[in-house]
Write a structure and sequence with these properties.
Blueprint (H helix, E strand, L loop, with lengths): L3 H11 L4 E2 L2 H6 L13 E3 L4 H14 L3 E4 L16 E4 L6 E5 L4 E4 L5 H9 L3 E2 L12 H7 L6 H4 L6 E7 L5 E5 L11 H5 L8 E8 L1 E2 L3 E9 L2 H13 L6 E6 H11 L9 E9 L1 H17 L2 E6 L3 H12 L1 H5 L5 E4 L9 H14 L3 E7 L4 E8 L4 H20 L18 H20 L10 H4 L2
Parallel strand pairs: 2-4, 3-4
Antiparallel strand pairs: 1-2, 5-6, 6-10, 7-11, 8-9, 8-10, 12-14, 12-15, 13-14, 13-17, 16-18, 17-18
């Protein structure tokens, strides 16, 4: 329990200003992008690794729960104090410490916002590809801990693919480094990768080392409009078969199109079944050739219209609709649950049809957005969490979806993580041997169980 005496010890580390305990402050940190809320007992804002280490030493000595938090955009309650205790918010550790152009890497504090990393390296002719929809607010450590993906996964991979190393503070308060800034490194177990996607359950990230790419010289955006969602799916498959790898390949299904149009009034076609939004990037010659080829595929496989941008400004205009999706979907019903199952790309059309069919059968309004190129789709369950009967139907629909996804070799989470939201599906996907090994790993890092307690391993039964 967080007694006055222990709170005093913690306040001595960060000072009164960076230790929040008022109801107003605690409520602010009691939710993320998931449905449930959990009140912490205090929120601390460390500024240095040494402060984090001292906080953890105190927490470990007194058995106080600590939940790390970046910007709280997590979709699964990962950043919430599910068992009370302290929320350790990293938003004030937000400096870019180094951008090394000779060796193409950057060293970042955990609370740096991903878009700020992208902007800073862009000015130097470099490129940090991971691009979650929440890029303007999500922190680098938050994206490491969820192994965030996003729009460019199809060509450039996910956060894990750019992570070189970490500085972390263990639950005991000890500081540890993993990885190096070199491309090659096989010294011992790969603790960097173990940490990546661990949802703040093993250690606290205090420094992130990421690799950078040279910036692509140019980019073009295509928008293809379809009367049949199957045709959009076939186009995606055919682009792949032809060996073309676009930088992004996003699909919006008709309920999403309607919600965005109602929200942003962009002149989207309300009678369309699907829109594909495709970016091709690279050098000028390749981009011209590939965008013409992609446009041809879209038409050949059923697009009724294809728009090809002619400038950076037009690229942005075409993307404006996609960027409005999160806000737009939130307006449709009081509750918007976002799934992120992933299937092998050849099953994508089947998966989309499945979710629409399951929704209809259970009388639940569903809609689909997909990072179509990598098989990662985001079904929206649009409902009202105050209506118990409706939420039971949502649960049944979700279960059916999970069964389908696993039956075709997919995963229950492509990028949002498990948290408390999807823990109940984990035994189905991983099995008990795997889960027990994960519990042993957790126990080695955190024998007292003080770091992010109540997370996925405890619910995966
Ligand atoms: C509108 C919207 C769009 C989104 N789009 C995408 C998308 O396209 N792709 C995608 O992958 N995700 C997406 N997300 C989900 C979310 O933005 C990502 O998971 C993001 O990585 C979370 O970053 P954050 O800073 O908000 O972290 P938080 O939500 O604060 O935390 C995420 C997890 O990391 C842990 N954590 C945070 N900081 C630390 C630290 N310093 N040390 C240890 N653990 C830590 C937390 O405990 C938690 O488990 C979206 C979310 C929203 C709301």
């Amino acid at each position: 329990m967080l007694t006055k005496e222990i709170l005093k010890l913690l306040t001595d580390v960060v000072g009164e200003e960076r230790c929040k305990t008022s109801d107003e402050d605690l409520i602010t940190y009691s939710y993320d992008a998931y449905l449930q809320e959990f009140m912490p007992d205090a929120v601390l804002f460390p500024k240095t690794t040494d402060e984090v280490s001292r906080i953890m030493t105190i927490a470990s000595t007194h058995g106080i729960s600590v939940t790390p938090r970046g910007s709280g955009t997590c979709m699964t309650a990962g950043s919430l104090a599910k068992k009370g205790g302290i929320v350790l918010c990293f938003s004030m550790m937000n400096r870019i410490l180094e951008i090394n152009t000779a060796n193409r890497y950057a060293v970042l504090e955990p609370g740096v916002v991903v878009a700020d990393v992208q902007k800073a390296v862009d000015g130097l002719g470099l490129f940090y590809p991971p691009d979650p929809g929440s890029v303007a607010v999500a922190t680098i450590a938050g994206t490491v801990m969820t192994n965030a993906g996003g729009m460019r996964g199809i060509k450039y991979g996910v956060t894990r693919d750019y992570l070189l190393g970490l500085e972390v503070v263990l639950p005991s308060g000890e500081v540890m480094n993993t990885g190096t800034v070199t491309r090659k490194d096989v010294a011992g177990y790969d603790l960097t990768r173990l940490m990546c996607g661990s949802e703040g359950t093993l250690a606290l990230v205090t420094k992130v080392f990421v690799r950078l790419l040279p910036k692509p010289k140019t980019k073009r955006t295509l928008e293809a409009i379809y009367d049949h969602i199957e045709d959009a799916g076939t186009t995606v498959a055919k682009i792949f078969e032809a060996g073309i790898i676009p930088a992004t390949l996003e699909l919006m299904e008709k309920t999403v199109i309607k919600a965005v149009e109602d929200f942003a009034h962009m002149g989207l076609p309300l009678d369309a079944e699907a829109i594909l939004l495709i970016d091709v990037d690279g050098d000028q010659e390749n981009v011209e050739r590939q965008s013409a080829q992609v446009a041809e595929f879209c038409k050949k496989y059923g697009a009724r219209e294809v728009h090809l941008s002619g400038s950076e400004k037009e690229n942005e205009q075409l993307w404006a609709a996609r960027r409005s999706v999160a806000g737009a979907m939130g307006r449709v019903r009081p509750t918007c649950i976002v799934e992120d199952s992933t299937v092998p790309v050849s099953f994508l059309t089947e998966a989309i049809k499945k979710i629409l069919e399951v929704g209809k059968r259970h009388n639940v309004l569903t809609a689909v957005l997909a990072h179509a190129g990598d098989g990662n789709f985001h079904p929206f369950f649009l409902c009202d969490q105050r209506d118990e009967e409706e939420m039971k139907r949502v649960e049944m629909a979700k279960h059916e979806l999970v069964d389908f996804v696993l039956s075709v070799g997919g995963t229950v989470s492509g990028e949002h993580g498990i948290g408390i939201y999807k823990a109940k599906y984990l035994p189905k996907q991983l099995g008990s041997v795997s889960l027990n090994l994960m519990r042993s790993v957790k126990n080695s890092f955190d024998p007292k169980g003080i770091l992010n307690p109540g997370s996925f391993l405890e619910h995966a039964i």
